[in-house]
Amino acid sequence: QVQLVESGGGLVQAGGSLRLSCAASGRTFSRYNMGWYRQAPGKEREFVATVDWSGGTTVYADSVKGRFTISRDDAKNTVYLQMNSLKPEDTAIYYCNVYIRVDQTNYWGQGIQVTVSS
Questions:
Q1: Contacts with 108 (C-beta within 8 Å, 6 or more apart), sequence order
Q2: Tens-place pLDDT, residues 14-37
Q3: Distance between CA atoms of 113 and 100, rounded to whole angstroms?
């Protein structure tokens, strides 16, 4: 059974930093691209960042480019999102994501709150 568990969220002042972690279990995740999404109040869930299976290719939403860094540690089955220079508009629930083709299923974590105060 695939499980994704996020941690590391919280309240931070504008300009501050947080590091989110996503602990994955139930598969050999080194085979899959992993991603982060977020959903702000009253808005749809949106893409934040993704890292490919090798860790060599990353893609970011324009809104976070240059401030956020996604990485992975396959020995720990963990994906990270380092968030720097946080802005109030980064306030959202952040979700870890993996699409597993053989299951034809998009898996999500339970989400973790990030709040940036101005």
A1: 4, 95, 96, 97
A2: 999 999 999 999 988 889 999 999
A3: 25
